[in-house]
């Protein structure tokens, strides 16, 4: 790990190359998707204009889950191949995923208020998102809990994998719980059935969000690599000074 | 086999002893459950309605209390090094410790729960199901909690971190466990919920030794 | 029977502790590790015990890479670190019997007998049924070292074994080490102070110079 990170030039170059493309996808996707959805898509006959918040809420939910999947995959690579950049990619992704989870929760709350008159509703999706938020927080906390970054990285990787295996089970159990406790009511934020006029803005926004995530990831991993290098150099300078 | 039983025996002796976790776990359980009538009011219908959830949540929290010490004592005095050198695979050694942990926390909690269920006016038909569900669910608590305990060995504020890491992963146990009891209270079959609890236990039993052993090896480096 | 180490390098945290370590240890031989604090003596011992992975280099037993059969390698060694691994609530006999059962799979009664014999050899017969919290530091450490008498391991890895021992106990340890080597066993030992290990080769870390 020491050696790979001492010369990460190839990765830094790769990430610098990806970055403008990711930014382009982000800008195009988000502008077109959100613009279409928020401004031009049809209002729902039941919910009226407030349904538009779905165009932020749903892609955020997808992103929160997608990023966790990426984190789990990167964690698997970390544990099997000990690749240092995979470890940093997972670490860098976590706050981004947590942020998308918060956006999903907040937009869910804002969506629910005009419809149901309450700021929070325990429907299946919001509850699963809340639990996912706790999983993200636990992962981030584990990184911060150790002085040795190598130890933190591998412990966090194990946690991410355990969480990934558990996540479908958690989702299933929350859906089950929800149907048990909400017999017939439509207390759900599922939104209208998918119609092309609604599907396309969602897809475009989701693509744009992914582009944004990749762009952000390249910046954050670069920052992690540089800060590790700085620490290595500082340490080497200190020991040289002592010996010299 | 003898090595496995030796670990269970030793941990049981330590767990039931004066410095063991048994009494504090049970006391916390009783205390936590007793707070609810004080907080919510003594109306029997309300208490009966929330009894399943309250007992399950209190059992979860009580079982988690002693988890951070599961491996820490052995790490602090060097026994973990010995366990890692033994011919017995580390995953099995960890499983032995988890078994002892369950015998000193989950099992006593499950046996005490029916008494607390009476205090909370739970439907008498549901109480045997409560016992069975807890017996099926608490092993999963110990197994998944052990993953959290092993991951946080030597971490700063490890004791606070273990519940944060473990509770989200245990939500299915809570949901199915309460579901079983409430089904019984409404006169429905609790089997689907109990089967799911059993499946979750089987899955945890199969997979968590790998995670626990991996986490312990990290701590040994 | 020989342990061979080739080109071994170790990195802890982000520090490089030693590089290109090389030595071969045959049956009956002993290796004494010297070096200032932080030079990597403990890390080398833990690496040889299989707790750490080397950053580079190879570990070979009788010419075959240890990584191909770590279980067999682990069964051949005993690592005793700084800590005594003694539970204060359990008696001296219970502590040792647990070790015997753990390492050899002996049944409870047999393990207790072996434990009693080891305690006698270590001069702790009177403390046999005392909870270990009543033992002095030196007695606890002798209890920890008594494990050497119960282990079937060939390779002994000891980190500062003479800590808290009085001179009589140090002499006893020397006799135990010699008996082990006479039987064909191998010893690698890290120590600040003099240890009775006649004919031992000396390895100074971090330079890795073998004398």
Number of strands of chain A: 0
Largest interface: A-B, 29 and 31 residues
Strand order of the largest sheet of chain C: 6-7-8-3-9-10
Report on the biggest sheet of chain A. Answer: none
Number of domains of chain A: 1
Strand fraction of chain C equals 25-35%
Cα distance, first to last residue of chain C? Answer: 21 Å
Architecture (CATH level 2) name of chain C: 3-Layer(aba) Sandwich
- What form of chain C results from the Cα inertia axes? globular
Query: Helical region count of chain A?
Result: 7
Q: What gyration radius of chain C follows from the Cα positions, in whole Å?
A: 17 Å
User: β content of chain A, as a range?
Assistant: under 5%
Tell me what you see in this structure:
The complex is a heterotrimer of chains A (244), B (221) and C (211). Chain A has helices spanning 2-6, 9-40, 54-81, 84-116, 124-144, 149-181, 196-243. Chain A is mainly α. Chain A has one domain (18-40, 51-239). The longest helix of chain A is centred in the last third of the chain and has 48 residues, at 196-243. The relative contact order of chain A is 0.19. Chain B has one domain. Chain B has 221 residues and is an all-alpha fold. In chain B, 54% of the residues are buried. Chain C has helices at 41-48, 70-76, 92-104, 108-121, 137-146, 167-182; strands at 2-12, 15-26, 30-34, 56-61, 64-65, 77-80, 155-159, 186-190, 201-204, 209-210. The mean pLDDT of chain C is 88. At the B-C interface, helix 1 and helix 5 of B face helix 2, strand 6 and helix 3 of C.
Write the topology of this structure.
The complex is a heterotrimer of chains A (244), B (221) and C (211).
Chain A: H1 2-6, H2 9-40, H3 54-81, H4 84-116, H5 124-144, H6 149-181, H7 196-243
Chain B: H1 2-16, H2 22-40, H3 44-65, H4 69-77, H5 79-85, H6 90-104, H7 106-119, H8 126-151, H9 158-166, H10 171-185, H11 191-220
Chain C: E1 2-12, E2 15-26, E3 30-34, H1 41-48, E4 56-61, E5 64-65, H2 70-76, E6 77-80, H3 92-104, H4 108-121, H5 137-146, E7 155-159, H6 167-182, E8 186-190, E9 201-204, E10 209-210
Parallel strand pairs in C: 3-8, 3-9, 6-7, 7-8
Antiparallel strand pairs in C: 1-2, 1-4, 4-5, 9-10
Short description:
Chain A is mostly helical. Chain A contains seven helices and no strands. Chain A starts with a helix and ends with a helix.
């Amino acid at each position: 790990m020491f050696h790979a990170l001492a010369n990460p030039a190839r990765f830094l170059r790769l990430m610098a190359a990806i970055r403008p493309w990711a930014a382009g996808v982000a800008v195009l996707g988000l502008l077109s998707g959100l613009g279409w959805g928020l401004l031009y898509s049809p209002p729902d006959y039941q919910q009226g204009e407030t349904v538009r918040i779905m165009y932020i809420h749903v892609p955020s939910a997808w992103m929160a889950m997608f990023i966790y999947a990426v984190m789990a995959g990167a964690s698997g690579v970390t544990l099997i191949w000990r690749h240092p950049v995979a470890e940093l990619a997972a670490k860098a992704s976590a706050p981004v995923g947590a942020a998308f989870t918060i956006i999903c929760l907040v937009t869910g709350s804002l969506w629910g208020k005009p419809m149901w008159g309450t700021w929070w509703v325990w429907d299946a999706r919001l509850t699963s998102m809340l639990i996912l938020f706790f999983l993200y927080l636990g992962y981030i906390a584990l990184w911060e809990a150790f002085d040795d970054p190598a130890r933190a990285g591998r412990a966090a990787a194990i946690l991410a994998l355990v969480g990934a295996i558990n996540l479908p089970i958690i989702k299933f159990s929350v859906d089950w719980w929800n149907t048990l406790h909400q017999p017939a009511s439509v207390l759900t934020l599922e939104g209208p059935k998918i119609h092309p006029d609604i599907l396309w803005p969602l897809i475009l926004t989701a693509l744009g969000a992914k582009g944004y995530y990749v762009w952000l990831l390249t910046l954050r991993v670069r920052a992690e690599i540089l800060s590790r290098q700085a620490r290595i150099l500082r340490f080497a300078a200190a020991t040289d000074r002592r010996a010299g | 086999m003898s090595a496995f039983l030796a670990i269970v025996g030793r941990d049981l002796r330590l767990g039931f002893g004066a410095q063991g976790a048994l009494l504090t776990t049970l006391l916390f359980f009783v205390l936590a459950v007793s707070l609810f009538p004080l907080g919510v009011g003594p109306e029997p219908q309300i208490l009966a309605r929330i009894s399943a959830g309250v007992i399950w949540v209190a059992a979860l929290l009580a079982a988690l209390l002693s988890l951070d010490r599961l491996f820490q004592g052995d790490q602090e005095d060097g026994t973990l090094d010995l366990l890692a050198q033994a011919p017995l695979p580390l995953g099995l050694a960890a499983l032995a410790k988890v078994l002892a942990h369950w015998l000193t926390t989950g099992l006593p909690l499950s046996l005490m729960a029916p008494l607390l269920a009476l205090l909370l006016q739970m439907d008498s038909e549901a109480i045997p199901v409560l016992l069975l569900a807890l017996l099926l669910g608490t092993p999963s608590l110990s197994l998944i909690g052990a993953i959290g305990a092993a991951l946080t060995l030597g971490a700063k504020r490890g004791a606070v971190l273990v519940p944060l890491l473990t509770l989200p992963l245990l939500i299915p146990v809570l949901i199915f466990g309460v579901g079983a009891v409430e089904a019984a209270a409404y006169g429905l079959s609790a089997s689907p919920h109990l089967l799911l609890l059993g499946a979750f236990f089987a899955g945890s039993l199969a997979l968590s030794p790998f995670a626990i052993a991996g986490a312990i090896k990290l701590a040994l480096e | 029977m020989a342990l061979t180490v080739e080109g071994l390098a170790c990195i802890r945290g982000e520090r490089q502790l030693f590089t290109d370590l090389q030595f071969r240890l045959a049956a009956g031989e002993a290796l004494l590790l010297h070096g200032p604090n932080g030079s990597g003596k403990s890390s080398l011992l833990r690496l040889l015990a299989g707790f750490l992975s080397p950053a580079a280099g190879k570990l070979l037993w009788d010419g075959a890479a240890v990584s191909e059969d770590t279980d067999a390698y682990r069964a051949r060694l005993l690592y005793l670190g700084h800590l005594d691994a003694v539970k204060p609530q359990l008696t001296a006999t219970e502590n040792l019997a647990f070790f015997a059962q753990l390492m050899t799979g002996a049944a409870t009664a047999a393990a207790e007998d072996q434990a009693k014999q080891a305690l006698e050899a270590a001069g702790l017969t009177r403390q046999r049924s005392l909870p270990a919290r009543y033992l002095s530091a030196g007695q606890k450490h002798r209890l920890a070292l008594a494990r050497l008498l119960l282990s079937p391991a060939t390779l002994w890895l000891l980190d500062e074994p003479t800590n808290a021992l009085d001179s009589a106990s140090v002499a006893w340890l020397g006799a135990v080490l010699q008996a082990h080597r006479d039987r064909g066993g191998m010893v690698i030992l890290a120590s600040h102070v003099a240890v009775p290990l006649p004919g031992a080769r000396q390895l100074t870390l971090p330079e890795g110079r073998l004398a």
